[in-house]
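README, section 4: Worked example with a bound small molecule

Sections 1 through 3 covered apo chains. Here we extend the same pipeline to holo records, where the ligand is supplied as SMILES alongside the sequence. The molecule in this example is zinc ion. Nothing else about the input changes; the structure line simply encodes the ligand pose together with the chain.
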Amino acid sequence: MTAPDFPAAPAPLSFGGTPRIYPMRLYGDPVLRRKARPLSPGDTLQVPGFAPQTVREVADTMLETMFEERGVGLAAPQIGLPVRLFVAVEYADDEEENEGQDKPLRSRVLREYVMLNPVVKALDKKKDRSYQEGCLSIPGIYEDGVPRMRRVSVSYTDLGGQPRTLEAEDYLARVFQHEADHLDGKLFLDHLPAVVTEDHRRELLKIQQASKNFLSHLAHWNSTAHLRENL
Ligand SMILES: [Zn+2]
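The generated complex, written as structure tokens:
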């Protein structure tokens, strides 16, 4: 999820080895519509186009990617991995702190979250619509009024394999719900009337085209893998 005023930067388009950050999967990419599978902290994961990594390495690079793209959360399907993993961050919301947006985002971090197999439950049935929402996979589109539960508990496994539960409210609760949705193939626009998606038709078509370009670039990389192995 992106906070308002944080436009997403274009993702770099180079594959191979271990990336510093991952390229972002965009609206229109089928991986964003798949139901992700559960994972264990000991799994080996392979982000398409890159070398295999541990879950911890992937989570670290996801955090790096999220900061680079000025996001507040990032789910594994958004980097092409259909597994139930997301990262999120809570920033200091002190007015003064927020003024200098040129400052590295990391200097404003209150807490980082890495959650495996998260399950979100409502602690308050009342719906909240009071924040604007955006998504790193749908760059440039922000909407008010996405209904979210105001208070939630999230049960998850941490990187050490420990089961944990925490409670969150307001904006952080929204972030967790947005990221958990990604693991079920759901996007924030799905929660709004169809007319909203229709209103953004032109921008969404552009994003879908960018997604197609990315996927054909990736397919080309994969189809030429045997040539690189023989070098
Ligand atoms: Zn998102």
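What to look for in the output: The pocket of zinc ion is lined by residues 1, 135-137, 178, 182 (CB under 6 Å). Residues 30-229 form a domain with the Peptide Deformylase fold (CATH 3.90.45.10).

Section 5 describes how to batch many such records.
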